[in-house]
Queue: 4 jobs
Job 1
Amino acid sequence: MHFLGSCVERTMRSDRVAIIGGGIGGLAAAAALATHGLDVSLYEALPHLGGKIRRLPPQTTSDAQAATQLPEIDTGPTVFTMRWVFEELFAEAGTSLASHLDLTPLDVLARHGWRTSATLDLFADAARSEEAIGQFAGAAEARGFRRFCERAARVYGHLDETFMRQPEPRFDKLAFNLAFRPTALWDISPYTTLWSALGAFFSDPRLLQLFGRYATYCGSSPFSAPATLMLVAHVEQCGVWRIAGGMSALAHAVAALAREKGARIATSAPVAEILCDRDGVTGLKLASGEVVEADAVICNGDIAGLASGGLGTEAQRLVRPGARDERSLSALTWVLTARTGGFPLSRHNVFFSDDYRSEFDDIFGRRALPRAPTIYLCAETRDGHADDSMEADDRLLCLVNAPADGDRQTISDEDIAQCRKTVERRLEAQGLDLEVTSAWSLTGSPQIFDRMFPATGGALYGPATHGWSASFARAGSRTRLPGLYLAGGSVHPGPGVPMAALSGRMAAAQLMADLTLRKRFHPTATRGGTSTR
């Protein structure tokens, strides 16, 4: 079947848009389109909205506890940055983000621990972070941090308008836009790994670990990811916020905005196929057999779902063959409640392994659980202040990285239990006392995530960002199939809640721009014998 390369040559019958997937990218697209008066329907396969954003209660450990309702805990993304993405979305709808969400800026961005009992906080105030690093590792490392922050800010400045907010990740356009900035390519260092680039700023191996961890925000290894990812440091310094009610409150707020503007949203409504004819998209077929007519479709599912043929053969051929083989990290996640002591928890806490390189060798090389994992612990009841204290039980999310092979091999219950014991021993060795008041409840694994997001193997960030060209290999908003657009963390501009939302907004903008062009070039007869809009 042949499709025309230009979307302008197809005439839409109406302004009906169907969206596949109720992750944050799909919800943002629905809100943006509904705000502009389009007829929007969104279909989510899972029983909840938000995609990887979700809340679950831990399991009970006794009959007495079973009689009480244990609190739900965020078991997906927990870090909220780049709030301007959502402020713009709500402002375009004539309202404000602050009127829908209770947001509190964090003082402590993250607390970091090592087996030596050394701890280091990064603060929203970069000057305080510099002072803390000086006390932690010496004046030379503090000066290196200052230079690192300056470089990260320049990288962000180079890429914000010229790359991240562009609907297509094209290197030729980026190179042209940066040609008039003499130091730009040197600053972004696309051909240098993040780990290598960090060596120009830090010599302390603990600081290399800390800032190398930014690669994992894209589900990648710092030893293979490009130095460009140092921009994450600047993003965090622009602000990290706590959302009352957790990240799920964000998904609910965007969904409520979309509904207020007229969008229809259905959960437990999986899509079986994207329908099309020789001119392009015609609608969707749901797993129930219902056919939904539409003039345009935004697919907010993982790109691997298209690559596997899960939404039809015509959509499958739009994805390059290797897209399923370059997977990002998966994870094991647990939620629990506990009384804590010893190590003073903040909201976001990272406990580093002794051998950082071996962790990624295990995951990306051996395709196995890391023998010495880095542990992320989110204490969502903490306010992120330097003097955080708790009298009640902490509500905790614990995460360790894992290979995204949930459709290729099974991590046994014994291996998962052993990994959890390793985590408990490591936390104890690093000074954290846990008196668990609920069960350690497994909420995520490569197999669990693969069932939730088919054909991904449990990859949580789409394709891995390894090598200089990885970011440019991601699919953009448009496809070669007229009327089909893409959004979500597996496509440009990349993974993470704000980036996925930005992709949804860009897909909506591209769709509306194409719709305007199609109407402009659709002739209408008028008295007087001329053709006009």
Note: Residues 127-238 form one domain.
Job 2
Amino acid sequence: MANESGLVKGPLVCVVMDGVGIGRKDEGDAVHLAHTPVLDQLGQRCPTVALRAHGTAVGLPSDDDMGNSEVGHNALGAGRVFDQGAKLVNGAIASGRIWEGPWRECVARVKSSGQPLHLLGLLSDGNVHAHIAHLFALLERAAAEEVRQVRVHALLDGRDVPETSALEYVEQLEAKLAALSVGGRRYCVASGGGRMKVTMDRYEADWPMVARGWQLHVRGEGRGFPSLRAAVETLRAEDPGVSDQNLPGFVITEGGAPTGRIEDGAAVILFNFRGDRAIEICRAFEDARFTAFERGPRPDVLFAGMMQYDGDLKLPARFLVAPPEIEGTLSERLAARGVPQLAISETQKYGHVTYFWNGNRSERLSGESWIEIPSDALPFDERPWMKAAEITDRLIAELRTGRYRFARVNYANGDMVGHTGVLDAARVAVEAVDLSLGRLVRAVTALDGALLVTADHGNADEMVERDKKGNLQRGEGGRFKPKTSHSLNRVPCHLVGAPAGVGLRSDEEAGLANVAATVLDLLGEPVPAAYERSLLVR
């Protein structure tokens, strides 16, 4: 049964300010530039600690790797650090495990049929959704196993890497394909487009994005270009200043025909390792009763993912690398103890505060309620306030019912608007979160409750690219060069409404995984020995 004798009498709320890290407090830091009276006050008057939210603190290969919402919410909800996507793939390649099972099936399929092996994914070294080194490993292994035909469907980033860096990766890919296209092999690019225009939708926010990708990758229907480089250069010239993530989709043609439709007998590997933006295209390939868009005849292909992106839905059925097995999450432990829980966010981060928080599980636990506030289907820099107010309205109303002992909420603004690279919009986004946070603090403390206010990673705190010396970079006309990727900065953790004499310990090694034990500690629930220790001091 729920423990009513914890340190907090009323509800405990964990607030995740997505993408709101601790920056350098300069002209490129939208969090610093924003008017944030609530956050300022929390930092001055409440127990506060800075948490690690990137690299090894969230299970990534090195501390040069930026954190992201997936691994951040895994750590917050699991209370421990698990090896994550990039690190798992690196290990599987190093050990050779990746070349077993589904990889063998894919190679056997295309050798038997004569159809190409198709590799679909993000062309980037951002290491958030994919890494170009993983793509190159697949290409080199295919050549070593004498796969004669390979087609690459290249999604352009500009979000987890500098916003107009695509040609750096294009040059690497085209050189690799040329080097491997010998001895009767033909390895080339078949289609592509910006990741926010084709294929990589998430949480069913924009199915037409996936439909556009399907037409390009599978049907070979779209504007044609002779090469990947030509496509990027032409599309940029037609829309000066466009970010790579927003480049329209295209196909690569030869003699007027697409170089790589996906047809019966082919094998397709989605080489992204992160799940949220991979699930919908998986469904399009694997779901026999698919109705999200008119896909036409579904080709008879062998489909595999780099990882299994949804363990509950078993998507995809085949995968090259097993995902982390996360058991005994905070939510599971609270459910087992009879503690009623609430998770709430808008569509853009709904899966993070539910699926990822719960250790990559898509089903609700006993006594757990999930609420999704539909996101706008509009550019985030045009609506930087997003749905913060609506989320807060609903959350306060739910807390006032007295049903919930613990709630978790994600405000998506700092991350989604931060990814646009528009500094002024990011400033407004942070202000919208601050305004909603003020309302939430007043409501929760009036209920004799408490809040842990933190973030899953940085983003809006670093909106301008820096040179190797750390100086803000300027481009044409002296304007700052926008940064659209996450930062490596720590994130705040404020304890609001703490009982007298209760604080947060200062610990340079503390990270997001310490939050789960802190929640249990505040609720008076036992903390498992395997968890990272609580941040509370008495």
Note: The chain has two domains: 12-83+326-537, 86-321.
Job 3
Amino acid sequence: MRRTRMLTVMLMLAVAAMTTSAHIGSPDTWFRGEAGPYPVQVVVRLPGVVPGLGQIDITVEGDGVTKVTAQPVIYNAGPEGAPPADVATPVPGRPGTWHAELWFMTPASFSVKVGVEGARGAGMVAVPVAAVAEKQLAIYPWLGKLMLVLCALLVVGAITIIRAAATDAVVPPGEVARPRLAGTVAPLAGAVLVAGLLFGGWQWWQSVAREYADGLYRATPMAARIDTVGGVRHLRLDVPMPTTDGPRSASSRLVPDHGKLMHLFLMQQGVPEGSAAAFGHLHPVPTDSATFSADLGTLPAGRYAVYADVVRETGFAPTMVATVEVPEGRARVNGSSSTQQRVAGPAADPDDAVFVGTAADVQFDLGDGASVVWERGNAAVTAGDDARLRFVVRTADGTEMPLDPYLGMAGHAVVQRTDGGVYIHLHPNGTVSAGAQRALAERQVTDSVPGMLAARLAGANGMAGMPGMSHSAQPTFAGALDFPYAFPTEGDYRVWVQFKAGGVVRTAAFRVRVGMPAEAAGRPT
């Protein structure tokens, strides 16, 4: 009974986890940064089920490293409430790479603390990880057959015991058992009873399995509508938020990420292959307790897939989705002077950008002699392997273009599988959210009331104090952009790379066909 109750509680906890990091279809967490004096790259591969065993690969640059550790810390417990750090082991044949396995027992927002010790001293970095249930594992065929055999033996044994209890067990010592009516009725009644118990257990199992399946992560839907006033279009978004953590409004429980409460991406749908398609990166602002609004500026009319990324004060960074039909309209006559690439007109936010163009394979022409080159090499791009998302921005004379800080970083990238099954917003430090890092790092034991941490962080500069953001104070960046990531599945993808040069946000679009890993070829699906 205790084990059954524990299983039910675990399943209910998994059902309750209806959020994840800012991705769709990309369960792995990629991080590139510094653990004190050590440059590190961390890849956390979650099993997709909770409880589950995560695989952690840590690559440390430089020699002299003697020890690498990893520790999962739940967002509201702190290090004192976490298990001891696991010591990672070196990976044979991969110098500088260490491996650890961590149990994630509860669906929640975690901070995986990676520690490095060596000749340069000790350092630590926290990587935000959202542990949620994203899939339902099937039972192994051999285990299912074994369980059926054992069940059959138990059923036969139970009926045999019932028959013996009704016949041989009631015969006085020394007498010979004679055929009795009970010898026929009792086994039949026992068989009916056992069948009823089996049926009830099967129904309970199916009910629990359905609850678990219903609770698997799906991108959170949100309501989207267009309000047009004088030809100027505004996108209104109703943002759903948990209702179990207090009465405060939805927006009050969000923390800034790169100085914005929301990053909104719109991808035009239904455009024939090889034709120009629109892409928008906007930053809506809250208009009431649970509604955000964005000026669509010069975004062309059409049907769009909408992805909204926010960061909650718990460290969760969910992606919310919608589809919207954008009507014809015009840009505002007032606003910022930011020029949108290939589309004239002002924007409501100087960091907003609207792009219309055709995706390239390797080199994207920016239209003024400058270009963006995807240095992915000649090898085929395969799912699960390093995607080699390295892009170099070059001026007309071939030199690297100096880049301005864009939302505190050298650039941003967005990846989408053309069928919508994969979406993710990338940064040079990986798939993690800087806002989530900051929320986890600055959370205090006194932040027990929903909205307290968000209010404190909102009162500070939106990008000040973000872990891994020390480079944001630099006046310019080199023209090379590198995003650690691996495409999770095969298929056709689009990659949009955004950066700022000369005070103007610019966008380059690429297409790529991602193949199946060689080791997976020929396997049954």
Note: The chain has a mean pLDDT of 82.
Job 4
Amino acid sequence: MESLIEMKNIKKVFPGVVALNNVSFDIKPGEVHVLLGENGAGKSTLMKILSGAYQPNEGNIIVGGRTYNSFSPKESLREGISIIYQELSVINELSITENIFIGKLAQKKFLGIPVIDSAFMRQRTAEILENIGLNKKPDTPVGYLSISEKQMVEIAKAVAFNAKIIIMDEPTSSLTNTEVAKLFDIIRNLQKKGCGIIYISHRLAELKEIGNRVTVLKDGSYVGTKNIGEVTVDELISMMVGRKIQERLNVNKSPLLTGGKKIFEVRNLTRKDKKVKDVSFYLREGEILGFSGLVGAGRSELMNAIYGAEPIKKGEVYIQGEKIQIRNTYDALKNGLALLTENRRETGILKNFSVKNNISIASYLKASKLGGLLGLVDGKFETEISENQKEALNIKCTSIEQNITKLSGGNQQKVILGKWIASKPRIIIFDEPTKGIDVGTKSEIYKLLRALIEQKIGVIVVSSELPELLSVCDRIIVFSEGKIKAEFDGQSATEEALVRAAASTSTEEERVNE
């Protein structure tokens, strides 16, 4: 059977990183082709090339008898390719109809003048909503919908224009079991019409139910393509993580702690939006606690809630046995909590400020009164702590007066670390601490993590890189669907075990080696 589209020998290079290396992929009419791999394997990069968001450095895309060396978003749309991202792109302020037709407004002629055909768009939206089983009126503002309903609107946008190929990136991450069953019905109907579905998911059980073929990527390279019915879950896991487990990094880990003092504890925490549900865990003195899980598992959502960046419905937080009240991020800072966020450029740095200002800001806020309203700037203090952190962390900059945006990603990360260390925290949460930085800087950060616990500072690490967690953590909690699914001590944890636990759809907690 002829393929709807073929991607041949695709290579994509970012500065210092080969994201895709000689990867080939195809999709046939009426099939669900699953794209599988760990976080960072290159799945999203490959799909962004197919959607026209990225241009490949090498390789070809063949569709409809035409061969493209590069693919623009306009060409991708013209060829009937639609992508549904995991991070929803709906606009809350617009109606369902407006979201579906945004950029593609239907028109009619009135007295020879083209005008918007609102009636047609509402009627077409009503038909689509009925077909996909979303019981909402076309004029309903999307902001009034639940997360799962917004996901259905994303699907409606793809269905509305008779896409030939639909890319679904973690489409069930925010859906209930009933909604998943409904989504699968929609997918099967699309298959009957000859539509090709590229399905990205880490939920291995559902892949066996909905997929026809599966292609596995690892570290930007092609591993293999199998018929779903001819491969077991264990074989898929082996293809994802590799038969040879990567060696652990040369980091001195603490001996296994079984009775150490609890210096940080979270009890029964639930976010108001239910992205985190009834989570309890603790951190012992002298250990690094890791959080593993797949994209969308809720790890960052948990850390943001703990730090007061997102509202919680219930839950308690204890530091050194003392219950603390965290209503906002300022409360967290005052109580000795620090959060190095996943998105460095958006929530980690102050882009218009110098290295010095970025390092000193947290210390000033912690020492200030009335939520930061009262506090004088001390230039000597700023310079002193900034120079100390620059030297201690080996921050490469022309001077501490240099704008932080002029630094490399790794040095920006060091500035953020310096900011929190200078604030003298009791607990530091690192969310993806080495994301987008070079190997040399990674090694420095790993050593720093161990040095922090030797200073009696509690360390929690959230990471999508399994070798990283296995290297630096003394205990690892696996997070999935907003809950804790498993727990391993650092000596017995393996990549296979972490992937298996993260991909599990069971709602039961599994405690291993507690």
Note: Residues 351-424 form one domain.
